[in-house]
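Each field is set out as follows.
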Amino acid sequence: MTLPISISAAQGAQVKRPSRYLRNLNSKIASIPMVLTAVVVFLGGTIWTILYSFTNSRLLPRLSFVGIDQYERLWSTARWMVSIQNLATYGILSLIFSLTIGFLLAALMDQKIRFENTFRTIFLYPFALSFIVTGLVWQWILNPEFGVQAVVRSMGWTSFAFDPLYDSDIVIYGILIAALWQGTGLVMCLMLAGLRGIDEDIWKASRVDGIPMWRTYIFIVIPMMRPVFVTTLVIIASGIVRIYDLVVAQTSGGPGIASDVPAKYVYDYMFFAQNLGQGFAASTMMLLTVAIIVVPWAYLEFGGRKRG
């Protein structure tokens, strides 16, 4: 009598088991507003922007298609080309220096130094400031009348010249200095978290084998921190593409258009020049740049993990 009862109980349990679509039903219902927001606002807004980038919309959007005329005009505009060159220069140098300085600071902090919490707070504090505040502060610091140049000249070096924000050839480097000051602390914290995740036995084994510390970092530690580096690269790259407020606060795109960037180009054409079609075309190119960054990252992170 025991066996039939057990079989019927098991069959009853199988019948009562909910389908996989009904599991965690409450959490799925709670996520509906977020899903709708993502679909309607982000996906819908993206499709709407791309669609109207093929129109000659001016002050108001209108479905008057002109093909790829807006894109041809975009890539033949000197201001857009200058903004792309500035973004490329700023982006490459920002990636190199942010990763290098951030990793070196993290390696130093990982040596269990005294007052580590104090130093970590000092390095991370600039990231808590907005780009507007950072831009204004560095605009004052780099001002030749009362900034670094004035201080050095007051010490006797009257021929010293350092005014990057007023030189069209090097103005983008003045913006880069402010960006590194603000963002390097975050990179340091990410790298430090990755270093603290390295097993202590690895360091002990390298010391026993007599491997120099720099070789341990390059050939052992850094390859083990690949996920941290990939995530940091994506965070930095996404910030590079949408840089706007730091440029506005420091130079407003000047001198002339020497420090213009794509995000400022989009804003100016949409709200000042009242040329929505041109602004939509420029923003679509920015979206394409972000997709070029995010898609390979998603493939490396999730595609490789799925194959594994």
The two ends are 48 Å apart (CA to CA). DSSP finds 15 helices and no strands in the chain. The CA atoms of residues 108 and 300 lie 30 Å apart. The chain has a mean pLDDT of 86.
